[in-house]
Amino acid sequence: MRGRYLFPLSILLAIRLAVVSCVGQDDRAERDQPPQPSRRAVIIPLHEDINPLSGALLERKFDEAVESGVDVVIFDINSPGGFTTVTFELMDMVLDAKKVETVAWIEKDAISGAALFALSCDRILMAPDARMGDAGEIVMGADGAFRYTEAKSRSVLAQKVRDTAAATGRPMALAEKMTDKDMVVFKATYKEDGTVRYFSDKEWVAMEDQDEWNKGPPVREAGKEMFFTANGRRAVELGIADQTIESRDELAAALNVSEPIPVIERSWVDTLVFILNSGFVTFLLIVIGLVALVVELSAPGLGVGGLTSVLCFGLFFWSRFLGGTSGWLEVTLFLVGVLFIGAELFVIPGFGIAGVGGIVLMLGSLVMASRRFVLPQNSEELTGLGMDVLTVLSAFAVFLLALLFIAQYIGEIPGLGRLTLKPTIAIDGISVADAANAASLPGWQRVEIGSFGEAVSPLRPGGRIQVDNDFTVDVVTEGDFIETGTQVKVVGKQGAKVIVRAV
């Protein structure tokens, strides 16, 4: 009986082994295939100086990328650096990012602040001949020459760079050497296991286990009187960068992300913000806005002057909002300044504290809206503040010159002649203005001090009166409210402002 079943069992065992072998081969073949990338990435270019405006744009683009749910954010860096304070803010932004992997791709140059920003990324990829480093902090002196910053400022920068290098696993001494030309960095090998580290001369002197290390020669890019700068090949060799690739086309393969990698380009809104934040356009917006505001205040009622002023200052503050330098405080101060000036012109007789205070508030808000700080903390911020103050004061000076021109020639400008009282020439006791076009003049030009009229609307304190049952005119009281139907007397005139008192 046992022999009868031997042959069928053998056949079954053979079939089973064949099936298992085929399945195993399929599994091995599947494992041998390269994994298909499932990670998504985006590229954010940084191809300009690092300043408050470009920094704010980069922050917005980074937030946009993170919110889109990508896995990797690649910063395409080709920049000479810029403002130290803005660079620190961008470094903190990247170091605090936990939801995405950050990569610095340097195809040409990452110099000064751009190199420090790259250090804060999780990975650094460079073209073989790209450059990175030379991050010494310099300032412009009063004579226009650039100088190495004072020791206190350098120590803050050096500590920031060391902390960043430690957080991203890069040689701290070489990173610090980017900012300190006086130190020397050399290579040392641990005798026991051959571990390689880089030390500065100051670190070596303070070490207690010097005898356990073999001290090598100074790194050729980190000698005396130079800031550390290296090309892509050398940066990878020294551990500053992670990998070299020839071009941006190889990024997807190097990072194992899906292709094509989209680029978050600058939009037309971003371009407009850059234009509106330029010094010349800022100057024009302030001058035109102030002149239009005065024209509107000289002829009450929202007209072309008011709309033009709102447009100019609206564009100014909108561009500063998106540029990251302005908030609601600056807008509030500006509007309060306008209210103070309006109250001085139409409510409070004369021109005193309210008017001067309004001007100071307006000009101060324009300066504050162009800066991220209230008080400068270093020479770099002080220089930037000086440029903004110069722009605002220059615009105000041109505005005053424009006022003088308007006051002298406004009567000859079509459409603006109604803002001034035309001169009269007496002929046989009758003025030319009275004889020719008195009826066509605005009421505030026809009314005289001492004239009487009747309030045809409540004066609280502004309103309208009728003079001699002939024409109406917009007026303000000396302060008291006056009800409709009350007899009033004109007691003063200040341009288009007519002041009355109850009889």
TrEMBL record:
Using the record's annotation, list all stretches that form the NfeD1b N-terminal domain. Answer: 43-191
User: Where in this chain does the record put each NfeD integral membrane domain?
Assistant: 281-405
Q: Organism's domain of life?
A: Bacteria
Please list the residue ranges annotated as the NfeD-like C-terminal domain: 449-501
Q: Which Pfam families match?
A: NfeD (PF01957), NfeD1b_N (PF25145), NfeD_membrane (PF24961)
Which cellular component, as a GO term, is one annotated location? plasma membrane
Q: What is the lineage of its organism?
A: Bacteria, Pseudomonadati, Planctomycetota, Planctomycetia, Pirellulales
The residue ranges crossing the membrane are: 272-295, 302-321, 327-346, 389-410
Indicate whether Mitochondrion appears among the record's keywords. no
InterPro entries, alphabetized: ClpP/crotonase-like_dom_sf, Membrane_assoc_protease, NA-bd_OB-fold, NfeD-like_C, NfeD1b_N, NfeD_membrane
Native species of this protein? Novipirellula artificiosorum
Q: Which UniProt keywords apply?
A: Membrane, Transmembrane, Transmembrane helix
Topology versus the membrane: Multi-pass membrane protein
Query: Is Lipoprotein there in the keyword field?
Result: no
Tell where it localizes. Membrane
Q: Output this protein's name.
A: NfeD-like C-terminal domain-containing protein
Q: Which residues form a coiled coil?
A: none
